[in-house]
Structure formats: C-alpha cells, structure tokens
Amino acid sequence: MTTSSLERLRSELRQLAEPQVRAQQERVLSPADDDELLGVRVPVLRKLARGYRELTLDEVDALLRSRVHDERFAGLLVLAEQVRITRGAERTSLVDFYLARTDCVDNWDLVDGSAPVVLGPWLLDESLEVLDRLAGSASLWERRIAVLATLALIRADRYEPTFTLVLALRRDPEPLIHKALGWMLREIGRRDERAMVSFLDRHAPELPRITVRYATERLEPDERARFVRRR
Predict the structure, then answer these.
(1) What are the DSSP calls for the chain, one per residue?
(2) Which of 157, 162, 177, 197 is most exposed by smallest CB count within 10 Å?
(3) Which residues contact 23 (CB under 8 A, 6 or more apart)?
(4) Angle, to 10 degrees, between the axis of helix 88-99 and the axis of helix 57-64?
(5) Own/partner long-range contacts of 7-12 (Cβ < 8 Å, ≥24 apart)
(6) Superkingdom, according to UniProt (predicted)?
(7) In this structure, are residues 178 and 172 in contact, taking their beta carbons and an 8 Å threshold?
(8) What is the spatial distance between Cα 73 and Cα 81, in angstroms, rounded to a whole number?
C-alpha cells in the first residue's frame, strides 16, 4: 500500500466516527489531554483493519505515533492482522516492532485489543521471558500487556504462566492490574474450573479483593462467597 492508503484509512475513520461513541470513550478511557477521540466502535475498527493489513510497518508506525486514539487502535489491529497471517522470523519481527512501541499502547482498551492477538500468539512457540520483563516494568500498560498476553496461552490450556503473573503482581498498586489478573483467572475457570478453584484455595487470602471478585464471577454463589469472605 502507499501513503494514499494510509490517508484513505484516516479518512474512513472519520467517516465512521459516532458522537455518542466518542462521548462514551471520554467517560471510560480517561484520555490524556492531547488525545483526540473520534468515536469509532471497536467491531468497526476490526473490520476496517482487515482491509488494510497490507500497510507497511512505516505506515503502521505513523498510526501508532498519532495522538488520535482511534488511529492508534486501528494501527494495533492492522498489526494483529499481520501477526495472524505470518509465522517464524516474520512474526518475530512484528512482535519486536510492537514491543518497541509499547509507549503508544497507552490506555486499557489499546492493551486489551492488542496484547492477546499480537504478543499472545507469538508466545505459544517462543520463550516466555518477555512476560517477566514486562511484568517488572514501571509502566502500568506494559504490566497489563504481560497479563493480557497470557490469554492466548490460556486458550491453549496453558495456565501456569498466568498463575505465575498473578502471584508476581498481587501487590501491584494499580486496580487496573488487579482487575486484569481476576479477568484472566476467570478465563481459566471458563476452561478448567477445577484448576482455577485449586489455585484460589491456595492463594485467595493473599490476592487483592477485586482480583478474587473478578475471578469468581461465574462460580455458584456459595462457592464464590467462600472465596470472597477470605478477602
């Protein structure tokens, strides 16, 4: 694709913007003062990204460096499309590109929309050391990337990396991390409730209350209360 393709994507984003969606974004995202919100729905962004997966990395970089929130999201989803159709060294290059630009992944929706589908698939065949590095970062968003990336592992029935991160980050100061930990535990429970319950039996008293509440949302009320009372 050419620069005209990039400009066409930007034009389409503005055409797809909805004022009521932008108002909702302003309420739930707490954007930085220099962020511009357009108000494009996430399913619409995903559909748009599929049509622009031939963008070059320079063009994706231009989107990620934009102060338009929806452009950054679109760039991440284009990158996810490229990861989906590549393997080996080419996929590793895309993941390296992503990890070098985590400063652009600067809100919870950008993390949640990209980490499981950009970094996550790569982790299935590669070293998990990057999770330790991200989890130890001073950046809230890098720590959340580490947690959300394990969703791909959970879907492959590999739960230990998530359990390890839950324990490593249990004293994190940020509620957004506590919620993410609980969410991933709940995802484990959707696939293997026994594994999640066994983990909580051992560790619930040392976990943040919100983590336990998120993790146990799908349990029977009596079983859920058993864990929540311990927090």
Answers:
(1) --HHHHHHHHHHHHHH--HHHHHHHHHHH---TT-B-----HHHHHHHHHTTTT--HHHHHHHHT-SBHHHHHHHHHHHHHHHHT--HHHHHHHHHHHHTTGGG--SHHHHHHHTTTTHHHHHTTS-SHHHHHHHT-S-HHHHHHHHHHHHHHHHTT--HHHHHHHHHTTT-S-HHHHHHHHHHHHHHHHH-HHHHHHHHHHHGGGS-HHHHHHHTTTS-HHHHHHHHTT-
(2) 157
(3) 39
(4) 20
(5) 9/48, 9/52, 9/55, 9/63, 9/74, 10/68, 10/71, 12/48
(6) Bacteria
(7) yes
(8) 12
Residue recorded with tokens 């060294």? 89
What does pTM read for this prediction?
0.95
